[in-house]
Amino acid sequence: MTFRIALRRIGAAAGLALAVSVAPAWADETQEAKLKTAREVIDVSGAAETFDGIVPIFLDEAKRTFVRTRPELSKDFDEVIKTLQPEFEARREQLLNDVAAVYAERFTDQELTDIKTFYTTPSGKKLVQVLPAVLQASYEKTNAWSRQMSQDVVSRMRQEMKKRGHDI
pLDDT for 33-83, tens place per residue? Predict the structure, then answer.
């Protein structure tokens, strides 16, 4: 092997080693940017607001559990809740960051950017504004449909079973 070939191989190996060692840092920066965009999507889409009341619900539920057997401690629990709420609100932030990681796994950088851009448009802002009412109305329609469907299925099954000689 000539000196020139050996030098090329050493250079190629050094270049490869450099590329491999830099790639994780670049990937971390890219992932951090993607997570930041995903979190922005959660914030601008109104998804973060769905978690706004979650901490007080947990605290109140815990209080109710304790107060059932110790009603005289109700006021003390109110004070404890005020003390603990900031601690548990910080966990809400962790949940939002975890949800952002899910978004980052499911969407490309470009898709996240497009989604974020959509939510800043008038249509996107309107979606954020009316979506809770749309979901509530959809839930009510789905429940009514389900009840009717269940009744119809039972009624039709009875009719078909009666044709077969079974009165159920």
Answer: 999 999 999 999 998 888 888 999 999 999 999 999 999 999 999 999 999
The pair of three-digit structure tokens given for residue 28, joined into one six-digit string = 């971390």
Q: Which is it for the CA torsion 93, 95, 101, 106, positive or negative?
A: negative
Pair 133, 111 in one domain: no
What's this model's pTM, rounded to 2 decimal places?
0.62
**91 and 49 inside one domain:** yes
- Domain range for 135 is 128-168
Residue whose structure tokens are 């609100």: 89
Residue found under tokens 């077969």: 164
Q: Indicate if 103 and 155 belong to the same structural domain.
A: no
> Which alpha helices (DSSP H) does 45-121 contain, by range?
54-69, 74-106, 109-119
Cα–Cα distance for residue pair 18/116, rounded to 1 Å = 35
Q: Do the beta carbons of residue 168 and residue 161 sit within 8 Å? A: yes
